[in-house]
Amino acid sequence: MNWHHPHRLARRAQATGRVIVAVFAVLLAAFFRLQVLGEDQYAFQSEQNRLRPVDLASLRGLITDRNGVVLADNVPGFTVSLIAPSAESLQVTLERIAPLARLDSAQLQARIQAYQEAPHNPVVVMRDASLEVVSALEERRVAIPGLVVQTEPKRRYPQGELVAHVLGYVSEITESELDSRRFERAKLATLVGRSGLERAYDDRLRGIDGVRFVEVDARGRTIRDHGVFPEGEPQQGEHIRTAIDIELQRYVADVFPEGMRGAVLAMDPRNGDILAMHSAPSYDPNEFIGGIDPDLWRELREAESKPLYNRAIQGIYPPASPWKLVIASMALEQGIVTLDMKMPLRCRGGLQFYNRFFRCWKTDGHGTLTLADAIRFSCDVYFYQLGQQLGVDHLLQRGVELGFGSKTGVDLPNEITPLYPQSKEYFDRRYGPRGWTSAVALNLAIGQGENSQTLINMVRFYSMLANEDGSSPLPRLVPSDRVIRGPRLGIGEEELSGLREALVAVVEGGTAARSRIADLRIAGKTGTAQNSHGPDHGWFMAFAPADDPRIVVGAIVEFAEHGSDVAPMVTNIIARHLLGLESAGDRNFRLVVPSDSAPLPIQILPDTIVQDFTPRDLDASQQPR
Amino acid sequence: MRRNSLDSPLLILTTALVVVGLSTLYSAGQTDFPTIASDMWLRQAGWLAAGIVGAVVIYRVSPHLLDWITPFIYGFAVVLLVLTLFFGSGAGTAAGSRSWIDIGGVHLGQPAEFAKFATILMLARHLAGRRQPHQSLVETVPAGLIVLVPFVLVGLQPDLGSAIVFLGILFAMLFWHGVNPWLLVLLVSPMVSLILAFSTGLWGAWIVSITLLLFWLRPFVAEALVVWGANAFMGVVALGIWQGLAPYQRSRILSFINPEVDPRAAGWNIIQSQVAIGSGGVFGKGFTAGTQKRLAFLPAQYTDFIYSIVGEEFGFVGVLFSLALFVTFLLVLIRIARTAVDPYSSMAVAGIAGMVLTHVVENIGMTVGLLPVAGIPLPFFSYGGSFLIICLISVGMALRVARDARRAGYGVG
Fold it and tell me: Which of A249, A275, B307, B392 has its CA 20 to 30 A from that of A483?
């Protein structure tokens, strides 16, 4: 029989009708229960009492170092709120407690406005109140209807200045952030990360706030606490274990020259784990908790030494001599040289290129050198010639391929992009097609000119030298199971180990001979970037053990005169990591005379700039309220 | 005959629902502190006018023509849903999901509502083309696919409440088509398993009854295995996986499935809604005089929880009256579906009834705490232009079907 036959339809219509009536009868029964049987109870609740939700702040997840040492945790702080039946009554109460809570009239108005926006929510009067204020308020409780004092978690950074740049800090969410998708679950007064890991992993660290229901009477006094519903339990955010080794970090901070500015970065070349990241000078992130003092904020922001700035990822410096390895690897990859090949022109303390004389740091000259020795003695003339042979086009193209024109993508906010022209068009645009010559290749070849790198970018490059296959991992502060691979050197294993041997020679008997450590074969490269602002910036990039590197350390010390000063510090850091505390050498190194300073770039261009530490304004989002 | 051609019971019931609904929305805006709801009834009146125009237009269109262009309507709806996924935006109480189509920053409408109507037409076309009702689960697959596409697209927005309505439509229409109700039970059984999985005893009883049902119904062996397997999977494996998740992962999943509902706030909303309804008592507090509402205790009182206002201000009497309106409205739709002259019209009107029933039951069930919170609007009451227009267009179509039946001489049989 057809489904559409009238008899079948009639039967079904009847059944449907019965189902509909039954379903509505159930609904009606529910209303009957609420409205007829439960009227008295609900009418009482509605007329006499008011349920008020009181927020229970969730705990932010902990941040620990690789061994579980706590870097960021939570301690109780006091929050004072008021539940008020009307705006007038709130005003009276607020005026009464204003002297105790030290509220000015503008703050008072802000509280009243907050009440008018959400009258059934308690108004937060003070956050992070001191115990004295809280006990003073509690003593006068009778005169303060609707007073709610809650302990609320407060962020604490037990290591203080030590890991400030890595951790960042938190502050209250802003109005505009509240509306954004990123903070869907957040409410007014939720703490959100402002910089560092606190910001990068904010989604995971932030918990879900809970709620407790309090019944208050018409005068705003709490008469019954309904407690927490199962769904209302606050949930703590995820804990995050970083790759940082806090003991190594502390050691780095200890050996970093007192009063100097700069950064040190230690990374495991095999997986990109950042073991230590130090930037000097630093600041105390605990100052930001509960709102930073405006004067201190201005001081931090405007200080000439820029303490808020993470120099490992936000400072760019001419890469100087450590860059020579970039040129060497490019030349090897292109097959222009081998490790024991000599250049046509010997070093006589410089190189005449058309009408200009490009100096070598050693005015007496190095004589004729192989590539390995040129690395060992950091001969500029050798690399001028390599740069010339590679040509500007290739230098720029391959440099970009090796990642020198972009951020590394480390899991921290506000990493800056290094300065490295993408192609020749950069010069054309800046100076006009005829305003520059191929001599820029010579400056580029020794890590000067229009090339400024972040420390983290250079560390990543040295991890390519350290890894057997010439690959680089994505640097990261929070380890994950999967290692993400970045750019690759693309030269043979034999040539790579030759480069490593040359770097070992630098430490054993070359420009960094003083930093040699017994029992450990360390490969490294010093560098000094001359700059027009004062003494040179010192570089030292190293990894060890040379045969099977487990750590790459890069250091830049601003105005440090020479890379050799930096070298002993770095080798000590490596020894501390690989051999333990006792084996680390003397902590007080002598400052020694400069040797392989990379010369200031020759003025080829109308206004060649020596790019050095260029303070940039902090990202607006980093600013706390 | 011309005077008689309009189905006056449906017209009168619709008018009554619209009037009561708009009054309630007006009342929702009357709070001590002005909220965004204060002038919503005026905007809703504008949508009402647009909806009436739409209803008149569809009343003029022959169901045969509609039948013919149904695939295009359905296709258009699917395209809109896909576009919404990529370019959609959130609004109001569902700010976290992408359910709106904007042009030049202006919210134009919610394609999900349009898709409900389009799906009804498409299913009607598909089912009307079959003389015999489905005898096995396999045969329901094409009908299932027609619903699955918009269901998944809407679910991804994510808007679980609206997605559920598509299932309501599917079941209502399959039932109307004469599918054995026990087959429908088998179809939903995995979902029931998922819900019951949290209690071993209940789930055990369920799986035993499903097994017995399978032996009694004797579907194809493969079908039986799939149904049984799906139930077992939902009950055992899903629960195991769920319990193995970290709390934050669970809340991620929950918030993905249903972003409008903050589990923390859900308890609060239900309490406030129940207090509002309960304190209304038998006769209510009087029009616009609800204290819970006035003090802005009621959450989303102009959309999801609008029926709490009916309960608070008109009391049990008002609830009885408005529920009676809905019941009669649905029964009239069923009558029209029964007397329709062609299968397509009959199926379409049955689908419309299914859609309205699902909305009403889920929305009102939520306000009294019988069903979980899933934000879907109450027809003719909740603020929202797209859904009001769709409801009125649906009524327009039902009126046309009723007229054709009368002209053919079936009358009010």
Answer: A249
Kind and range of the H or E element at A527?
strand A523-531
Sign of CA dihedral A569, A575, A577, A580: negative
Q: Is the pLDDT of residue A9 over 70?
A: yes
The Cα–Cα gap between B210 and A217 comes to 52
Cβ pair A211:B268 closer than 8 A = yes
Contact B278 A213 (CB under 8 A): no
Q: At residue A19, does pLDDT exceed 60?
A: yes
For residue B250, what is the nearest residue in chain A, using CA coordinates? A235
> Given this model, what pLDDT does residue B253 score?
62
| Element at B324 (helix H, strand E) | helix B306-339
Residue B370 to chain A, least CA–CA distance (Å): 8
What are the angstrom distances between the C-alpha of B31 and each of A80, A413, B25, B45, B302? Answer: 29, 45, 12, 20, 12
**pLDDT given for residue A603 in this prediction:** 45
CB contact set of A295 (below 8 Å; sequence gap of 6+) = none
* 3 state DSSP class of A453: strand
The residue behind tokens 């629960």 is: B239
Among the partner residues A3, A30, A53, nearest to B368 by beta-carbon distance: A30
Contacts of B199 (CB under 8 A, 6+ apart): none
E strands, A40-159, in order: 50-56, 63-64, 70-82, 123-129, 147-156
- Cross-chain residue pair A208–B251, CB shorter than 8 Å: yes
Structure ipTM: 0.88
Tell me which chain A residues have a C-beta less than 8 angstroms from the C-beta of B178.
3, 8, 12
Of A17, A50, A51, the CB nearest to B331: A17
**Helix, strand or coil, per DSSP, at residue A29:** helix
Lookup: tokens for B178: 């004469």
Nearest to B327 among A4, A20, A31 (CB): A20
Tell me how far apart the alpha carbons of residues A439 and A449 are, in angstroms, rounded to a whole number. 10
B18: pLDDT strictly greater than 80: yes
Strands (E), B252-355: none
Residue B292 at interface with chain A, using a CB cutoff of 8 Å? yes
* CB contact at 8 A, A267 and A551: yes
Taking residues A202-225, report their average pLDDT: 72
Between CA A276 and CA A397 the distance in angstroms is 32
The least confident of A368-377, B146-155, B158-167 is B158-167
Hey, are the CB atoms on B267 and A23 less than 8 Å from each other?
A: no
Question: What span, in angstroms and rounded, lies between the C-alpha atoms of A80 and A129?
Answer: 7
In whole angstroms, how far apart are CA A519 and each of A508, A509, A581, B325?
Answer: 12, 15, 14, 92
Contacts B292 to A, Cβ<8 Å: 46
Percent of all residues in chain B with a pLDDT value above 70, rounded to a whole number: 83
Pairwise CA distance, residues A517 & A507, whole Å:
9
Q: Which letter, b or e, does each residue of A121-130 get, where b requires 16 or more Cβ atoms within 10 Å of its Cβ? A: bbbbbbbebe
**pLDDT reported for residue B115:** 93
- Distance separating alpha carbons of residues B318 and B245, to the nearest angstrom: 46
Helix/strand/coil (H, E, C) string of A188-237? CCCEEECCHHHHHCHHHHCCECEEEEEEECCCCCEEEEEEECHHHCCECC
Q: Which residues pair with A358 in a beta bridge?
A: A351
By DSSP bridging, strand B101-103 and strand A274-280 are unpaired
The reported pTM is: 0.61
Q: What is the DSSP letter of B95?
A: T
Out of B277, B327, B368, the one facing A21 most closely (by C-beta) is B327
The Cα B120–Cα B140 span in angstroms is: 15
CA dist A455 and A450 (Å) reads 16
The per-residue DSSP string of A141-168 comes to GGGSTTEEEEEEEEEE-TTGGGGHHHH-
To the nearest whole Å, the CA of A149 is away from the closest chain B CA by 21
